[in-house]
Design goal:
The protein has 241 residues and is an alpha/beta fold. The protein has helices spanning 34-47, 64-81, 94-108, 133-137, 145-156, 190-202, 219-222, 227-239; strands at residues 5-8, 19-23, 50-54, 87-92, 116-120, 179-184, 207-212. The protein is built from eight helices and seven strands; from the N terminus they run ββαβαβαβααβαβαα.
């Protein structure tokens, strides 16, 4: 497949031992945007961490199987070089869903787990069947449920529409640790975050939710919400390093 894996290191700050495996959003159909790169550069230079960003396969040419055929071997390679306690898994939107699904897959294979998982506005269920989504849709100026469902169907391919690898909300959550989710109330993906938290609780796992009133989808990256909300959330992310 010949996909690239980008490694971003700090320019103006002493390099720390922290490594971040980051999956960008884009409905599984779009490349990382300039806003993604700006956000990652800021994280790197403010924390000293190194960010590993895979250019994973995109729909409609590829589906979730192709993605996991890339990211699982990549994860296995990373943990041969990086202490799990120094590894953070991170992603936004579709990349947030991919991050969580990968962690569930890692747990299923009994591989060393990342120390922490940070999800920004994660897409947890491509089927988008939560009835609360329609209420939030009135406030979400970025995402459209019906358009997003089409992207999810393409990502799922012929047989993946109910797979936990596509919908990590359906995965085994019992082995997860230190999962922190940043979500805004004006994001149609917000209601599923609470479904995930409740499912995790039933499986004996705690998922921390940091919710921001009137924040839109991936507001930390696209800066589409009040600046004070963006700054508050960003400082909370820095505190996780």
């Amino acid at each position: 497949m010949g996909r690239n894996v980008f490694i971003v290191t700090p320019k103006n700050k002493e390099k720390s031992n922290k490594k971040v495996l980051y999956f960008h959003g884009g409905s599984y159909v779009a490349e990382a945007t300039s806003q993604h790169w700006d956000f990652i550069e800021k994280i790197v230079n403010d924390t000293g961490a190194t960010v590993i960003l895979p250019d994973y396969p995109l729909t409609p040419k590829y589906n979730y199987k192709d993605v996991f055929n890339m990211v699982v071997p990549l994860y296995k390679e990373i943990i041969t070089r990086v202490e799990p306690m120094e590894l953070i898994l991170m992603g936004d939107s579709a990349g947030g869903g991919l991050s969580l699904a990968l962690e569930e897959k890692v747990a299923e294979e009994n591989l060393p787990m990342p120390e922490k998982t940070i999800l920004i506005s994660p897409w947890l269920d491509v089927r988008l069947t939560n009835p609360k989504i329609d209420e939030v849709q009135k406030h979400d100026k970025q995402l459209n449920k019906e358009t997003l469902k089409l992207a999810g169907i393409a990502y799922a391919g012929e047989d993946g529409i109910n797979s936990y690898l596509v919908n990590p909300i359906e995965g085994d959550l019992s082995k997860l640790k230190n999962v922190i989710i940043f979500t805004g109330t004006h994001d149609i993906l917000n209601p599923d975050v609470y479904v995930l938290q409740e499912k995790a609780k039933q499986q004996g796992t705690s998922i921390e939710i940091k919710e921001y009133e009137q924040a839109g989808h991936i507001w930390l990256i696209e800066k589409n919400s009040p600046q004070e909300i963006e700054q508050q959330a960003y400082q909370e992310i820095l505190g996780l390093f």
